[in-house]
Amino acid sequence: MSKFLTPEDLEKIKKELDYLKKVKRKEIAQRLKEAIAMGDLTENAAYQETKDAQGFLEGKILELEKLIGQAQVVEKIDGAHWVQIGSTVILAPQKQTKSSSPTEKYKIVGTGQADPFKGEISMDSPLGKVLLDKPEGAIVIVKTPIGKIQYKILKIE
């Protein structure tokens, strides 16, 4: 199954994988060496923690390698008048509440690359799915746990 990524997303994943393989593996190997030097491994908490960290690290490395292997790089078409992966979209909720802002801004990113704190939402998210391929001015409705929310696409960058 293909995972759609922007060229920037793919580069970021490759850098993270390189760091995990070249730096974190060495750090964990050193920690294991130090824990083993303490003696009796059956009741050595430092050894057990480090082995767990090593397992987690190797799992993360495999996950990133799989993601890279399944990646389908999607180039953003500059000047396009529809939402695509890599687009930044400015939306206006159609019903204002006291807690909502007059506009919301999101960047549509590839599979598994969302960072809501940076305003990045995945193309696979409920909002990302309804925005893809829509033009400026379109009204979209997204289903959320609190009900349906209607947005107008004000601008696509």
What is the CA–CA distance across the termini? 29 Å
CATH topology of the largest domain: Helix Hairpins
CATH architectural name of the largest domain: Orthogonal Bundle
Number of domains: 2
Mean pLDDT: 90
Helix content: 40-55%
Structure class:
alpha/beta
Mind telling me the C-alpha Rg?
21 Å
Low-pLDDT parts are: none
Strand order of the largest sheet: 5-4-3-7-6
CATH homologous superfamily classification of the largest domain? Transcription elongation factor, GreA/GreB, N-terminal domain
Name of the CATH first level of the largest domain: Mainly Alpha
Number of strands: 7
How many individual helices? 3
State the order of secondary-structure elements, H for helix, E for strand: EHHEEEEHEE
SS strand fraction:
15-25%
Quick summary:
The protein has 157 residues and is of the alpha/beta class. It has helices at residues 7-37, 45-70, 126-131; strands spanning 3-5, 71-73, 88-93, 104-109, 120-122, 139-144, 147-156. The protein has 2 domains: 3-73, Transcription elongation factor, GreA/GreB, N-terminal domain (Helix Hairpins, Orthogonal Bundle), CATH 1.10.287; 88-156, Transcription elongation factor, GreA/GreB, C-terminal domain (Chitinase A, domain 3, Roll), CATH 3.10.50.30.
Question: How would you characterize this protein structure?
Answer:
The chain is of the alpha/beta class and 157 residues long. It folds into two domains: 3-73, Helix Hairpins; 88-156, Chitinase A, domain 3, CATH 3.10.50.30. It is built from three helices and seven strands, in the order E-H-H-E-E-E-E-H-E-E. The chain has helices at 7-37, 45-70, 126-131; strands at residues 3-5, 71-73, 88-93, 104-109, 120-122, 139-144, 147-156. The strands form two sheets. A five-stranded mixed beta sheet has the order 5-4-3-7-6. A hairpin with a 2-residue loop joins strand 6 and strand 7. Helix 1 (7-37) runs antiparallel to helix 2. The longest helix is centred in the N-terminal third of the chain and has 31 residues, at 7-37. The two termini are 29 Å apart. The model has no long low-confidence stretch (mean pLDDT 90).
